Amino acid sequence: MSGHGTSLRGYILTRLALAIPTVLILLTLVFLLMRVAPGDPITSALGGRVPAEELERRKEAAGLDKPLPEQYVEYLGDAFTLDLGTTINDDREVTSIIVENGSATLELTIAAFIVALAVGIPIGLLAGRYRDTSIDVGGRMFGIVVYAAPVFFTAFLAQLLFSNVLGWLPSSGRASPVVEFELNKVTHFYLLDTLFSGSWSDFWDVVKHLILPAVTLGLLVSGVLIRLVRVNLLQTMRGDYVEAARARGISERRVVVNHAFRNALVPVITVAGLQLAILLGGAVLTEQSFNWPGIGAELVRYLNERDYIAVQGIITIFALAVVVVSVLIDLINAFVDPRVRY
Amino acid sequence: MSRIAKLAAVASAVAAGAFGISACGDDDGGGGEGDTLIWGTTDQPVSYDPAGSYDLPSYNVVFNVYQNLMQVPPGGQKPEPEAAESCEFTDEKNTVYECTLEDGLTFSDGSDFTSEDVKTSFDRNLKIADPQGASSLYLNLKDIETPDPQTVVFNLKASDATWPFLLTTGGAAIAPAEYPADKVQPSDDVTGSGRYQLEEYEPGQQTVLTANPEYSGDDPAQVDTVIIQYYDKSSTLKQAVEQGEVDVAYRSLSPTDIDDLQGADGVDVLEGPGGEIRYLNFNIDLQEGSDEQKLAVRQAVAQTIDRDSIAENVYNGTAEPLYSMIPAALQFHTDAFADEYGDAPDVDAATQTLEDAGVDTPAPLEVWWTPTHYGPASGDEYAEIKNQLDDSGLFDVTLESTEWNQYSEAAFTDKYPVYQLGWFPDFPDADNYTSSFYSKDSFLNIHYSDPEMEKLLAEEKASTDDATREEAFAQIQQIGAEDAPTVPYIELSQVAVAQDGVGGVEDTLDPSYIFRLWLISKD
After folding, report:
1. Min Cα separation B57/chain A (Å)
2. To 5 degrees, how large is the angle CA B26–CA B31–CA B35?
3. What is the pTM of this model?
4. B200-219: b or e for each residue (b if 16 or more CB lie within 10 Å)?
5. Does ipTM exceed 0.85?
6. How far, in Å, CA of A153 to CA of A286, rounded?
7. Which residues does B448 contact at the CB level (< 8 Å), separation at least 6?
8. Would the CB atoms of A89 and B136 count as touching at under 8 Å?
9. To 10 degrees, what angle do helices A200-237 and B3-24 make?
10. Do B443 and A52 touch (CB under 8 A)?
11. String of b and e for B327-349 (b: at least 16 CB within 10 Å)?
12. Which pLDDT tens digit goes with each residue over B343-361?
């Protein structure tokens, strides 16, 4: 037992130590890419209106002409102290962007994730359980279609049907403008804030706004989960212990649910966790399609404006989030599966 | 059926039920009820401090929250006193400009609005010189005297008859003296004396204005609350209009969106004269051939372009052909390019022009444009221009494009021989459409310099006499058409969409580009 514990501790420490160079490489890449790309926030905003000399003067005033090594050292220092700075273009604290827009993305991501699990796992299970039947074929085709369809296309179809034609759901935003204005944003998670406010009509308004984007994004992820659950279920169903269970006369339903399914879920947890981390930063197209004021949409805006500070700050948080989630998943897997060790 | 299949069926039923309930529920999009107006826009502001912004989205709020000493009235062309009771040049050289403030002005926090606030507003703007601000417009200001709380005297370095216009710009809005002298005031904590006050600002999401109870003018806000809701794309804004989620949509719907909404029930598409122009620029140093040949090419392009076709086919009628760098709605405009080259394409004349100069045809032309700054129709616009020039047989056009950030550096640093630009005014005066382009120090850096042009520009800038300026601008436009360093082709109309029951929007659509919320009412 003590050997197992030491080995696990060693794995944890090694895994955490490996996270540091990962983060460092990511931060350096972000820094370099933003500097290599042509343009700067001042020219982006005022090019075509003021003379070149005036633009240069303004760039100097904004500190955009410092030597690169100096900027790099400052950037790393700020990143490791989580001092993400203030945006150049609109003078916002980057931490406020993370909190306000990050919570919007997190709310959408969690809702989409729930949809993905609710759709992907049952369909994957059914497809695996009824392999090579019409259920299996239908499930796999559904998975392929929702995964292959571009998310903005799915969003467009959803808006067309449910907003424009049927008029059931709003097409964009987190809440109606008046609800958004009147809401006391304590947590910046609108579902929670409306519950705290005690207004069911506001809560329902927020739910309605969340449905289409969450389903659109969730379906995309469910496509991954469907195939993954199916494949893993089929693999575990071929295991000796499953044969042994059948041999002991256990019903097929119990074999699938109690024996095969749980073991099939272990790799699914890994992938699902990584999908969640990716969703946090990659929901850009969904956010743009639904005018969802998430951090992805803000990142695109600041990228277009070449606002180095904002982009660096947001990407830093993305990088840290992905690294933290992947470390956590690895640690969970190591805890669950003693074979996972360095 | 297995338990799993049953669970799946139950989950599906719950989901369907949720949809059904939402379908039955009242999901009226939420366009403002009662005394709340919702304005949807794709514009995103930079700063609500007049010293920290030089962009239309920011000014859309600045003009409603603050007051200027002078303003351009709705539909008007000349500056008139706003916070000032009167303003005038007090010397013959137009270098001393004195304003007397209205009595009883107060900011929305109840503090008095005095000449000291005017002085500090300009002083801090110039001192901060924010990279995103408009301080470069006021560099001609030498100093400001405030002999008493009601009097402001601007001493200019050089004669500038456009100074009254400059006082109407967003950067000249008057902020309280309590604003920091060395940095920009946070956008969520601004105070003005205008018809509205800032209630809340959530970057990227919404700005909320409420009627300012301290406003003492005779044109107060008609709607108590205005929510400016931001949209990432014009398509989502259009959907919001169709669903009734917004009362007014202003900036920026695409031409196809506007076309679509023209026939929609319950909405009105409103147009007004705009001051946003589109023009081609020729970097004279990068053109090939002799000076005569270079001129011939520019003139031939001006003779060949079919402006009507661009306005109709690309912009679905939301643009008008333009025959001068000065928009048609502005005083002193002349159709100089039409006078010089005709108001319709004349390929024969263009052919002759090129022949006379010894230019071999088809003459190669490398034309640059950008897809990420001038709206979604830019691609179609330049495809149309290329087709027109190629089809004439006189030109062989190669279109190149790059995104705005790279474009806005390269265009003004001698990288592009011919390139697209657009312009909307700092203030609605002909000077802003001529000195910006034809001066030898123009930001365009196209290496155009004409001594007669410089003389005329100085003349119009120094004079307040309409007759003198009219004559100067007539000659400026004529020379501009003859030399054609820039070739204007369209001006865009201002377009807003309003739900039924919303009035007054059309009254604010004028070349000043000031969206005066106080003119808008809602049943």
Report:
1. 12
2. 115
3. 0.86
4. ebbbbbbbbbbbbebbeeee
5. no
6. 10
7. B284, B438, B440, B442, B483, B485
8. no
9. 160
10. yes
11. bbbbebbbebbbebbeeebbbee
12. 999 999 999 999 999 999 9
